[in-house]
Write a structure and sequence with these properties.
By secondary structure, the protein is mainly α. It is built from 16 helices and no strands. The protein is globular, with a radius of gyration of 20 Å.
């Protein structure tokens, strides 16, 4: 029997949003997201001067959900019921998991230290991408990922800033939440724009976000000054929304595991901003690790991912 289907009938069965792979463009767009995410820990440290960890977690999500809802309504987007559970999972991990754990961690560790510890994110993202993201990184990719993660772990344990403590456990939980959430949202971004994925994830979790912000208002708002208010606004509109627009977009067109490698540079974006915003020192050792990690990212980009 011959195939009588036409090209138009075949294309009609494809997803409405099927991004074409552009590895270099995906890396560049993903790096914009990394730059935005890189300021998250320093901004959290500043916001803690005026808000509790609970209010930061729920409050910034509530603000971002309102913005996302307005954008979706203005563009006439319909709620994707078939993807509701995956959107909810991504929302719980990215809207509450990472912000909550990292806010608690920032009470006891410097932002620069947190940025280095979170350098394990690319390796964890690649692992989750292999588990349920449909990607199969080859041996070379895993070797470079482990090398990059090893660099940041060695830096963290070298005693260059502080000794490991309970804050590292909270940072580890934050990394688990973020990496798993990245893969879920990145996979969803293969069938619809990345901005729409994070928008629906925020909207579907909005009732809990708003309720949490209301209940934590009285004990969570501690007479914030201008800097704390600006940091909170950045966390809501940048870290919680704009960063994911670029990050999901980059993963969709560049591949989850490969674009995840770019996040090895986020540690050093955080270090630089911590020095600029919080006055934390950047030593020659830090610069050396930054150069080494940049080299690993470049090598990882050339490794094969199926």
């Amino acid at each position: 029997m011959t195939d009588t289907s036409t090209p138009s009938s075949q294309s009609a069965s494809l997803p409405a949003h099927a991004p074409i792979r552009h590895p270099l463009a995906g890396l560049a767009i993903g790096f914009i997201g990394v730059l935005i995410f890189g300021a998250t820990l320093p901004a959290t440290r500043i916001a803690l001067d005026g808000f509790s960890p609970a209010f930061i977690t729920f409050g910034r999500a509530a603000v971002a959900a309102v913005v996302a809802g307005i954008v979706l309504l203005a563009l006439g987007k319909r709620f994707p019921r078939r993807e509701a559970m995956r959107l909810l999972a991504a929302g719980v991990l990215l809207v509450y998991g990472f912000p909550g754990f990292s806010s608690v961690a920032m009470q006891t560790v410097p932002a620069a230290h947190g940025g280095v510890v979170l350098g394990v994110l690319p390796l964890m993202t690649a692992a989750f991408a292999a588990l349920f993201g449909g990607e199969r990184p080859g041996p070379a990719f895993w070797a470079w990922s482990i090398a990059g993660a090893g660099l940041v772990v060695v830096f963290s344990l070298s005693g260059a800033d502080i000794e490991p403590g309970p804050g590292d456990i909270w940072l580890g939980c934050a990394a688990l939440s973020a990496s798993c959430g990245y893969v879920i949202s990145g996979k969803l971004a293969r069938t619809r724009p990345g901005w729409e994925v994070i928008s629906w994830a925020l909207v579907i979790t909005a009732p809990l976000s708003i309720a949490g912000a209301i209940f934590s208002w009285e004990s969570g708002v501690l007479e914030p000054g201008g800097a704390a208010l600006a940091a909170f606004a950045y966390l809501a509109l940048g870290s919680m929304y704009a960063g994911f627009v670029f990050w999901n977009w980059g993963m969709a067109i560049g591949g989850i595991a490969k674009v995840g490698q770019v996040q090895l540079l986020q540690s050093f974006v955080t270090l630089g901003l911590s020095a600029l915003l919080l006055g934390e020192a950047v030593t020659p050792v830090t610069i050396g690790f930054a150069v080494a990690v940049a080299f690993v990212v470049w090598c990882g980009r050339k490794a094969k991912v199926g």
